[in-house]
């Protein structure tokens, strides 16, 4: 399994569409076996789902994310845990333990609205495996 996290200075970056780096975690048997930080090279919004697919991400942990990006991730088969904040490494460990708290309404208030409609199969609660 490969987990991607929006990444900036060790923390989860809070605006998916403006993410400049992702940290990828390779996971086998519930343990992190490798880590890599990758630059998006200016890819934004819609292109980021393709970027994650190209890096074979199975899961995305992020802060705020809009509905279009959520749809693109769902179409790519990438599990979304949005509305998460704090250190990236801690979030991944919580995900692996099955106790990562996430939001059914990841905030993207920069657009002047909340992207919290629960029409994308995200019910809030806990993420993880």
Describe this structure as you would to a colleague.
The protein is of the alpha/beta class. It has one domain: Dinitrogenase iron-molybdenum cofactor biosynthesis domain (Nucleotidyltransferase, domain 5), CATH 3.30.420.130. It has 3 helices and 8 strands. The chain has helices at 46-54, 67-75, 88-97, and strands at 2-8, 11-12, 21-28, 31-39, 59-61, 79-81, 100-102, 125-127. Strands 1, 2, 3, 4, 5 and 6 form a 6-stranded mixed sheet that branches. The protein starts with a strand and ends with a strand. Mean pLDDT is 83; it is low at 109-124.
Q: What proportion strand?
A: 25-35%
> How many strand elements?
8
Give the number of helices: 3
Write down the CATH class.
Alpha Beta
- Beginning-to-end CA distance, first to last residue: 10 Å
Percent in helix? 10-25%
Going by CATH, the homologous superfamily would be Dinitrogenase iron-molybdenum cofactor biosynthesis domain
* Unreliable runs: 109-124
Shape: globular
Give a nutshell description of this structure.
This protein has 129 residues and is α/β, with parallel strands linked by helices. The protein is built from three helices and eight strands, in the order E-E-E-E-H-E-H-E-H-E-E.
Secondary-structure topology with pairs:
Elements: E1 2-8, E2 11-12, E3 21-28, E4 31-39, H1 46-54, E5 59-61, H2 67-75, E6 79-81, H3 88-97, E7 100-102, E8 125-127
Parallel strand pairs: 1-5, 5-6
Antiparallel strand pairs: 1-2, 1-3, 3-4, 7-8
Helix pairs in contact: 1-2
């Amino acid at each position: 399994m490969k987990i991607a996290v929006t990444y900036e200075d060790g923390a989860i970056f809070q605006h998916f569409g403006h993410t400049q780096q992702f940290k990828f975690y390779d996971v086998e048997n519930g343990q992190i076996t490798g880590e890599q930080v990758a630059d998006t090279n200016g890819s934004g919004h819609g292109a980021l789902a393709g970027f994650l697919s190209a890096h074979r991400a199975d899961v995305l942990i992020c802060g705020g994310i809009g509905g279009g990006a959520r749809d693109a991730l769902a179409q790519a088969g990438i599990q979304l845990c949005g509305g998460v904040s704090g250190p990236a490494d801690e979030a991944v460990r919580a995900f692996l333990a099955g106790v990562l708290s996430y939001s059914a309404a990841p905030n993207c208030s920069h657009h002047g609205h909340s992207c919290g409609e629960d029409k994308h199969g995200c019910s809030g609660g806990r993420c993880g495996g």
